[in-house]
Amino acid sequence: MEKKKKQQEQKRMEAKKKQKRTLEGVPEELIMAIITRLPPNSLVRFKCVSKPWNTLISSPSFIKLHLNQAISSIRSQRLMVSSSLNSIQSIDYEASEVSAINQIDIIAVANSDRFKIVGSCNGLICVADEENSYHSFILWNPCIREFKKLPLRFPLAENLKVSIGFGYDQSANDYKVVRCTFDETLGSHLVFEIHSMKSNTQKVIRRYFSDPRITFSDHNSKKVVFVDGVLYLKANSCSFRRDNLEYDDAVLGLDLKDEKLEIVQLPDDHVNFDEDPELELGIFRGCLGAIQCYFGTMIHIWALKNDGMKQSWIKLMRIMELQSVPDSKDLIPVCFMRNGEVLMTCTKKEESASKSVFRKLKVHGLRPWFHEITYTQTLVSPKLL
């Protein structure tokens, strides 16, 4: 028995020496360049290889390197689709096989249908209690299966329209949760409650818009998009022009660095919402995107470019001749794919579009009112925030 133990120990020592010899002579920069491109689930397993590997992969510097690599790579992007917390699926939308759709278990994180996914940033998913005006929050990284209940309680806001945003202030290395409430009885009075996770403090910003008057509808009161340090919120505007009231879409931008609010100018060639459905917001090629469907016949997609001095809208794509597509008015673009295709969602099951134009990626088990959000696969741990 003793001899067998010695032989096993000798084999382990030889294996360690062989592993060391294999890595000797390989530049550290090359090793880092390789492993920072690996998906988080592989890196989590590699932490069990040895203590040095565990120390390296768990270090803040490595997690930051991996994060920067993941943000710049479309291979690290995923689409999360949910209609309830009992049906959440992660989709590798670049893959061609249905096996790229994975069911995600979040029941241990939030065991109630009251919770809803409200935002994502750097691989962290913000989940909020939809009841009671979103006063309970959880941060969750599905890739490393870690979550954290936030010590955050917004005051109850009954009978108000509520929007929730989640983003990151890079200048202060601070993640922030923002709640915007709108009271129709007070006109264009908006209240922004900003919670800093770094300092565990809250700041309240109150704004009143007279011209244009800013309002929210039930349709757009949940539209919040985070891009490059700014939370963008979908709204409506009402202006007095030539003694008449003119209604249009509106976009508000809240800079998380200086916590200032501004109205973002819309594309010049967009159509007033009195004539057509409202604009939708999204993220396209790393920029704020605006989407508008014209009576189910065509779709226009713009991206907001910022050169540091000014902002301008660039037309990215115009999808024409949708009349032949059943229920084309229900098609909503989500993101661009690596090959130039546009990923779109459609709530209708009876869809028979031409295969030469469309290809389907069916997600089973969803209700018609499903919610989708893109996120990045990272190693960022909510427990360390």
UniProtKB/TrEMBL annotation:
All copies of the F-box domain together span 20-65
- Which portions of the chain have biased composition (kind: Basic and acidic residues)? 1-13
Where is the stretch described as Disordered?
1-21
Record's InterPro entries? F-box-assoc_dom_typ3, F-box-assoc_interact_dom, F-box-like_dom_sf, F-box_dom, SCF_F-box_component
Q: SMART domains, from UniProt?
A: FBOX
Q: Which CDD domains match?
A: F-box_AtFBW1-like
Pfam family name, one = FBA_3
This chain belongs to the protein called F-box protein CPR30-like
